[in-house]
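tl;dr need the bound structure. longer version: we got a ligand (zinc ion) that a collaborator sent over and nobodys looked at where it sits. i said id run it. heres the input, straight from their email, havent touched it
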Amino acid sequence: MAVEIQFRREFSFEYGRLERVAPGIRRIVARNPGPFTFRGTGTYVVGDGEVAVIDPGPDLDEHVAALLAGLAGEQITHILITHTHRDHSPAAAAVKAASGATTWGFGPHAGGRRGDPAVEEGGDWDFAPDVRVRDGDSIAGKGWRFEAVHTPGHTSNHLCFALPESGVLFSGDHVMGWSTSVIAPPDGDMSAYMASLDKLLGRRDAVYWPTHGPAIPEPQDHVRAFIAHRREREAGILECLDAGAERVEAIVDKLYLGLEPGLRRAAGRSVHAHLLDLAARGIVDSDRPATIEAHYRRVRR
Ligand SMILES: [Zn+2]
């Protein structure tokens, strides 16, 4: 039985407009739609008067201008960054320059090197937070208080931000309603991602607001479906290995029927992420260092 994920793709918004989406929460969507960003980056504003901005978004002048215009007469005191992909953090520089706000994030982009071929939106190597945030840290402003939840996997520096009083979790790209997350090594790590999904299952958040797409009102069911989906994919990869497909390319051919050519590289990176996780657990090994080019096989015991 294939795992069914109830994707949520119904999304009403208007580009360039800061709109109230819940009590104390506003959102403006950047005009950077794409295969990994859905309709675009959702920049959240929390509070009224003295506010926090979560993920100011890509380096798009019109987006920054619309955000600042929407907040005319208010003060941005905090800029929170879920992770350093180019659709999330680059606009922090312009928003900080305009407001004097401090930036908060886990740390600079890590894993790989500047200029590596990018899947998804690529890393923002220019961002470094003013304040380095760790798991469980509290970030408080006027009328709101966040708890940081370190959720490595999509990137090693990924954070979710909870508002414990209202049961809200800003889930970044770790858990989205419209799609699964891209896990692309070396910065993406499947073992860490699965542990970060388990970590959310251990919490009691009532609703997730991801950076892309609409809110997720039954988040625990959604997280459970993602875990089941990855376990199913893992089983499929092991079947491919048993059937003689030993390389990432061959496994992608067998596993992803009807895949759009533009998503082929991302699929390969995802299969590679699973193979690295399986290797770390002693279930598969490879004929040479566990790169995307290696031959993999199941360990027989
Ligand atoms: Zn991302």
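gonna send this back to them w/ a short note. The mean pLDDT is 95.
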